[in-house]
Design brief:
The complex is a heterotrimer of chains A (about 190), B (about 375) and C (about 160).
Chain A lengths: L2 H27 L4 E2 L5 H10 L22 E5 L7 H10 L5 E5 L1 H5 L21 E3 L6 H16 L21 E2 L4 E2 L7
Parallel strand pairs in A: 1-2, 2-3, 3-4
Antiparallel strand pairs in A: 5-6
Helix pairs in contact in A: 1-5, 2-5
Chain B lengths: L12 E5 L11 E7 L2 E8 L7 H7 L4 H6 L7 H16 L5 H29 L5 H21 L8 E2 L2 E2 L7 H23 L3 H7 L7 H6 L5 H4 L7 H4 L20 H25 L18 E9 L2 E9 L7 E5 L1 H5 L3 H5 L4 H11 L3 H5 L1
Antiparallel strand pairs in B: 1-2, 2-3, 4-5, 6-7, 7-8
Helix pairs in contact in B: 3-4, 4-5, 4-11, 4-14, 5-6, 6-11, 11-14
Chain C lengths: L1 H11 L6 E3 L5 E4 L4 H10 L5 E9 L4 E9 L4 E10 L5 E3 L9 H11 L2 E3 L37
Parallel strand pairs in C: 2-5, 6-7
Antiparallel strand pairs in C: 1-2, 3-4, 4-5
Classes of the chains: A alpha/beta (about 190), B alpha+beta (about 375), C alpha/beta (about 160).
């Protein structure tokens, strides 16, 4: 293939893909369905963000699904304790792709005020890939809405050609930790 | 026609509700043993939000602990602050100025209103009425959270009380705003009641469900609206008369039928009584100091002390053991919802799965306090 | 009020070694094996029907379990009982048959401090998971716990 033919082929492919990408991403970001998964205090601010004053229905997100099988976004709001962490990872594994994780509040980002204690995981990004971090203790509902806007910008920037969930070789199932005698143990590291 | 064999061989099944479930008010798990749809046994499993609070309390100084008490029952942060601060004041024998006492009572009664609105909204959510009563409750709650933010800087985790008073005096815009909230409140409760109290679905699903006889309530150490709906007239604000509650004129609301519907009515009644207390406090509040000067390194004398208040959910108590140093030797929280849950298996036996959700909603748990 | 109850208890159980401790909250020190009968007497004869709180404390030389009792019917104030247990084999009789509200509280003390309660209907861990080793609220247990994987490093 000569250089001109190669360039022409690339231009044709990318122009079509950009339009498809734009429509596809617009559809996806305008109706992200969060999973109602409130763990602790940040959950109350999440409920306030869903209520009438700081409505997030304007973003298309008022469909909070209780089941992970129908949700796009895992809003980890609150402290993740070691007893709860296997459940969180299992729920993430049950969500269909494309899926996103938003860590809301200081506890989900890094353990927060309860960091380095015997029953608290230092941030959910120990076990899950997090896309957006919303700091605060608890973050105001407006801060959560800002987090959603950042998530929308991230979704708009994604393209079908390079997104991980259409490629066969990427391992997307997160290993579920096991409750061991002194803390959490990942499978495969059990006999230490 | 032949007579049909009516004795079928049945087996019980075990159903797991939670920890992720829209109706368990947080991460709470119930292992329910069912015979058909009737409950034979229920085992609550908790600890999914155990954040090592009591051990952190031993690591912190007394002053640092106040910001951690906000996160106990995260809806009512002002009452948690007040219980802890009062316990330390009893330990170190600190006197509180009058204006500070009035400010504390105003904040605690506003917290009681906030909590009951959210509790009723959550109960109705669990019954299936997804989000409409909650939206009504949250609308008024936002006005009260604006008051908290005006005074302490934060909507929820206020961290406002200190040993010997409060942190800041009330800002100038507080009193007119409080008066307008208090004046508008009775009309809001009437609107709420018109929507819910005579509603036939609420009546059908809440009456005769989860009946708790008064002797069982006392034996199982239940406190708060759960106890008063069973007809026991025990309110720590009247019994212990802590702070300056003896200057206010209010009634203790009790129920007669001991079921979920009565707990709902008791909470509505308590909101009305809180409005009465607020009206009196707004009139009586004097001018003056709001805090007391304490030494920079605070070391209370040795000893142990237990102090309790009537938080919106029941009896919240703090047991502190001091060894004369800057940190508590033992910091124990008597959490009302943790102990109220002892009676949950007894309340649910014989009911259906859908009733479990209503009963749990009427006990009004908050996992931050159950697990600490 | 605590002093009168103490006098009444000394009359009722002359062979039990009871002690009266002064302080901001005066308390009655009871021996472990006398606890069930003293508790039953207090509930039935003296009207202390409401057990408010059960606490465990880890002192350097002993464990201690503290009971706060109130009377709802008669409005009587706090009566405090303290029971000591040894450090090596801490065991205290359970008061759950007398006041069922102590059920979860005793399980929590067993879970976090390791004090066993004889006669408890279902003594197992409540806040931490089954299979956890160690009792976190003891003074020799570090706040960070003992980690097994290198996944989280205490900073």
């Amino acid at each position: 293939m000569t250089e001109e033919e190669y360039i022409a082929q690339q231009v044709r492919r990318n122009v079509i893909i950009t339009t498809i990408d734009k429509i596809y991403n617009w559809g996806r970001r305008s109706s992200v369905w969060p999973m109602s998964f409130g763990l602790a205090c940040c959950a109350i601010e999440m409920i306030c963000a869903a209520a009438a004053r700081f409505d997030f229905a304007r973003f298309g997100m008022e469909m909070m699904r209780p089941t992970p099988r129908q949700a796009d976004l895992l809003l980890v709001s609150g402290t993740v304790s070691k007893k709860m962490a296997p459940q969180v990872v299992r729920l993430y594994d049950q969500m269909p792709e494309p899926k996103y994780v938003l860590a809301m509040g200081a506890c989900a980002i890094s353990g927060g005020p309860f960091k380095d204690t015997y029953n608290v995981v230092n941030g959910i990004d120990t076990y899950l890939p997090v896309d957006v971090y919303v700091p605060g203790c608890p973050p105001r509902p407006e801060a959560l809405l800002e987090g959603f806007i950042k998530l929308h910008q991230m979704i708009e920037g994604q393209t079908i050609l390079t997104s991980p969930w259409y490629r066969k070789e990427v391992e997307r199932e997160m290993p579920v930790p096991i409750l061991g005698p002194k803390g959490l143990v990942l499978p495969g590291e059990e006999d230490e | 026609m032949q007579a049909v064999e009516t004795r079928l061989r049945t087996e019980t099944i075990t159903l797991n509700m939670g920890p992720q479930h829209p109706s368990t008010h947080g991460v709470f798990r119930m292992i329910v043993t069912l015979d058909g749809e009737t409950i034979v046994d229920l085992e609550p499993v908790m600890g999914y939000l155990h954040r090592c609070h009591e051990k952190i309390g031993e690591r912190n100084t007394y002053l640092q602990n106040i910001s951690y008490t906000d996160r106990l029952d995260y809806i009512c942060s002002m009452s948690n602050n007040m219980a802890y601060v009062m316990a330390v004041e009893k330990l170190a024998q600190i006197e509180v100025p009058e204006r500070a006492e009035y400010i504390r009572i105003i904040m605690v009664e506003l917290t009681r209103i906030v909590n009951h609105m959210l509790a009723i909204g959550a109960l109705l959510n669990d019954l299936g009425c997804f989000f409409t009563p909650m939206l009504y409750g949250l609308r008024e709650r936002e006005r009260i959270l604006d008051l908290f933010e005006m005074t302490s800087g934060s909507r929820m985790m206020c961290n406002y009380m200190r040993f010997g008073g409060v942190r800041y005096d009330l800002p100038p815009g507080f009193m007119p705003e409080l008066k307008s909230v208090v004046a508008a409140f009775p009309a809001f409760i009437d609107e709420f009641e018109r929507l819910l109290t005579e509603n036939e679905i609420v009546l059908a699903r809440c009456q005769k469900v989860g009946v708790l006889p008064p002797d069982m309530a006392i034996a199982y150490s239940c406190t708060g609206p759960l106890l008063r709906a069973s007809g026991v007239d025990y309110d720590i604000r009247k019994v212990d008369s802590y702070s300056i509650y003896d200057r206010f004129d209010f009634d203790v609301v009790t129920g007669t039928n001991c079921d979920v519907y009565d707990r709902y009515l008791v909470r509505i009644g308590e909101m009305r009584q809180s409005v009465r207390i607020l009206e009196q406090a707004v009139e009586q509040i004097p001018a003056g100091e709001v805090s007391v000067k304490l030494p920079r390194v605070f070391k209370p004398p040795e000893g142990d002390v237990y102090r309790r208040i009537e938080s919106p959910k029941g009896e919240l108590g703090f047991y502190l053991v001091s060894d004369g140093s800057t940190n508590p030797y033992r910091y124990k929280i008597r959490s009302p919802t943790f102990i109220n849950l002892t009676v949950l298996p007894e309340l649910c036996k014989g009911h259906k799965v859908a009733d479990v959700v209503a009963i749990l909603g009427s006990i009004d748990i908050v996992l931050g306090e159950v697990d600490r | 009020m605590s002093r009168e109850v103490y006098e009444r208890l000394v009359e009722e159980f002359p062979e039990a070694p009871l002690e009266y401790l002064e302080g901001k909250d005066p308390a009655i020190l009871v021996k472990g094996e006398d606890l069930p009968k003293v508790a039953r007497y207090l509930k039935e004869e003296q009207g202390f029907d409401y057990l408010s709180a059960v606490t465990g404390v880890d002192y350097p030389d002993r464990f201690e379990v503290i009971y706060h009792l109130y009377s709802m019917r008669e409005g009587k104030g706090a009566l405090i009982l303290k029971v000591s247990a040894s450090k090596e084999e801490p065991e205290v009789p359970s008061v759950t048959p007398i006041w069922p509200g102590a059920n979860f509280q005793e399980r929590e003390i067993y879970d976090l401090m390791g004090i066993r309660f004889a006669g408890h209907p279902d003594l197992k861990r409540i806040l931490l998971w089954e299979g956890y080793e160690g009792h976190p609220l003891r003074k020799d247990f570090p706040l960070e716990g003992y980690q097994t994987t290198g996944q989280e490093e205490p900073s």
